[in-house]
TrEMBL record:
Subcellular localization(s) per the UniProt record: Cell outer membrane
Gene3D superfamilies, sorted: TonB-dependent receptor, beta-barrel domain (2.40.170.20)
Protein's UniProt name: TonB-dependent receptor
Alphabetically ordered keywords of this record: Cell outer membrane, Ion transport, Iron, Iron transport, Membrane, Receptor, TonB box, Transmembrane, Transmembrane beta strand, Transport
Domain TonB-dependent receptor-like beta-barrel: from-to ranges: 7-106
Presence of keyword Cytoplasm: no
Pfam families: TonB_dep_Rec_b-barrel
Residues in coiled coil: none
Main location: membrane
Native organism taxonomy: Bacteria, Pseudomonadati, Pseudomonadota, Betaproteobacteria, Burkholderiales
């Protein structure tokens, strides 16, 4: 038996990323550096508008510029030592956006993207 209709929506996600990378190499050392710009857009169009259930349409955009750096030390023809560091970027998923605190209908467009050390926000 199917329950009563509570949601009907058209959800879309778009992402656009650009990446810039450069490399410098000498006989003993190679250095690679990069920057990435990411933008992720969520859009929801509510198709279930009824008395007591208003229009919950909305959108949210998340963007960040993240760096990456790599270093290789060429010890000899058979041995390389390397290290790398970078920063990541994470957005909420549509599933995470699907629920508002307290169980209110519609998407939680107030949710922010997590950052290092911040934990997740509701």
């Amino acid at each position: 038996m199917m329950g009563a209709l509570r949601r009907n929506e058209d959800n879309r996600v778009r992402s656009f990323d650009q990446y810039l990378q450069g490399q410098w190499t000498s006989e003993r050392v190679s250095v690679t550096a990069g920057l990435r710009h990411s933008r992720v857009s969520f859009d929801s169009r509510d198709r279930y508008i009824a008395p007591g259930n208003g229009d919950d349409s909305g959108s949210a955009d998340y963007s960040a510029v993240t760096p990456a750096l790599g270093l290789v030390f060429h010890v000899n023809d058979k041995l390389n030592l390397y290290a790398s560091a970078g920063k990541g970027f994470e957005t909420p998923t549509f599933n995470e956006l699907s629920y508002r605190p307290g169980g209110a209908p519609g998407l939680n467009f107030g949710r922010t993207a997590p950052t290092a050390g911040s934990g997740r926000s509701a």
